[in-house]
Design a protein that fits this description.
The chain has about 150 residues and is α/β, with parallel strands linked by helices. The protein contains three helices and nine strands. Helices cover about 25% and strands about 40% of the residues.
Length: about 150
C-alpha cells in the first residue's frame, strides 16, 4: 500500500499549467513514475488530458488513445525505469476527496492486469482560486481500501 507520494516542483508546475488551461472545468490525465520502495512512489511526469478529452464542470473523459501513446513515449524515453503509477484530475473545490466514481475507477485499475501497478495512486488537484492543493490517495485491492498519502516535495 502506498503511503508516500513524492511530487516534485516540476510535476507540480506541469499539473498547475494543465489546471490553468481549463480553469472552470475538470481535467486530468495519467501519472508516470517509479516505486522507491513498497510504500513510496515518485511521480516523474503528469500527462496532459489529450486533444480529444472532454471537460465538464464536474467530470471529464480522457483521451485514451493519446494517453497510451504518451505513456509509451515516456516508457521508451526512461528506458523502462518509469511506468504508469496512477491518475490525476481536478476537483473544483477544496477538501474534495475521491468521489465514488473515482474510487470505483482506481479499484478497477488496481485489479486489471494490463496496468503496470496493483496499487495505483490518484492525485486530486483541489482548485478554488486563489488556493490550489495537491492531495494524494493510494488504492489497494487486498484488503480493499483507500489511504490518504503524504505528498512531499
Amino acid at each position: 500500500m502506498i503511503r508516500q507520494v513524492v511530487l516534485g516542483p516540476a510535476v507540480r508546475a506541469t499539473l498547475a499549467a494543465h489546471v490553468a488551461a481549463k480553469p472552470d472545468l475538470e481535467t486530468g490525465g495519467i501519472l508516470v513514475g517509479r516505486h522507491l520502495d513498497e510504500e513510496s512512489v515518485e511521480v516523474t511526469a503528469a500527462s496532459p488530458p489529450g486533444p480529444r478529452a472532454t471537460h465538464r464542470r464536474f467530470s471529464f473523459s480522457r483521451d485514451t488513445k493519446f494517453l497510451q501513446s504518451w505513456l509509451d513515449e515516456q516508457f521508451a524515453q526512461g528506458e523502462g525505469e518509469f511506468d504508469y503509477v496512477g491518475e490525476w484530475h481536478v476537483h473544483l473545490a477544496l477538501n474534495a476527496p475521491p468521489s465514488s466514481v473515482d474510487r470505483r475507477s482506481l479499484f478497477r485499475i488496481a485489479r486489471k492486469k494490463n496496468y503496470a501497478t496493483s496499487s495505483p495512486i490518484l492525485i486530486i488537484v483541489e482548485s478554488s482560486p486563489p488556493t490550489r492543493r495537491f492531495c494524494a490517495y493510494g488504492f489497494a485491492v487486498k484488503p480493499k481500501r483507500v489511504e490518504s498519502a503524504l505528498v512531499t516535495a
